[in-house]
User: What shape does this take?
Amino acid sequence: MRVVVSIGGSVLAPDLDSDRVAAHADAIRTLADEGCEIGVVVGGGGVARDYIGAARELGANEVQLDKLGIGVTRLNARLLIAALGQRATLSPAEEYDDAAAALRRGEVAVMGGVMPGQTTDAVAAAFAESVDADLLVYATSADGVYDADPNETSDAEQFASLSPADLVDIVVPMSRDAGASAPVDLLAAKLIDRASIRSLVLDGTDPEVLVDAVLRGEHSGTDVVPEGTAEPTYWAQEE
Ligand code: UTP
Assistant: This one.
């Protein structure tokens, strides 16, 4: 089974705690040991936002700000690479083909951001599409996809499952409202819809949650299931 996991910077490194990074690396290693081909895309989190905020005050333009953000995602990716040791690519892949080649070599392919104008949500979806991944997992600080922003609306309800087209419809208005936090960004949702990528959005704070979700299909987040496909088939069920 080929899996791409997007780990938010706020999940991997809300602060610099080597034990936390090691625990996420252990989860990735467990999946690789179970036979998963695994790619990981790492986000920038609060550190990226801090750099972007400071540089905005200094007058940097949006492309310059995005490049700063990309730099931080790659720093975080290097932290995870340090924890993965020999299992991972030597450095964060900057091109999808390089990441795909690393997968073919049997390495854990680790990436950060790629180009201005998007976030690592979209990188993960494009990477998943480019390698025909069986599953794309967003390990985020949100615990799934809701019908409204749960930070804004007290009775927001979580979807257990929805189609990629529904995901796009939900994310569109959230992306229009400044400050609202969409579970995945709009470009990512469109890529998931275009390529019919089976996806999961879950709370990645506890790395064990990722293992249970990928190996056993057990999670309390949201399944994004392309129409016409059966129940997600997870590695353990493909035996
Ligand atoms: P993140 O993917 O961490 O963005 O990239 P985010 O939306 O702030 O993350 P979460 O989901 O809330 O944790 C950090 C920043 O890096 C730039 C963007 O400016 C983004 O906001 N970036 C990242 C790019 O410009 N291109 C990329 O491919 C990736």
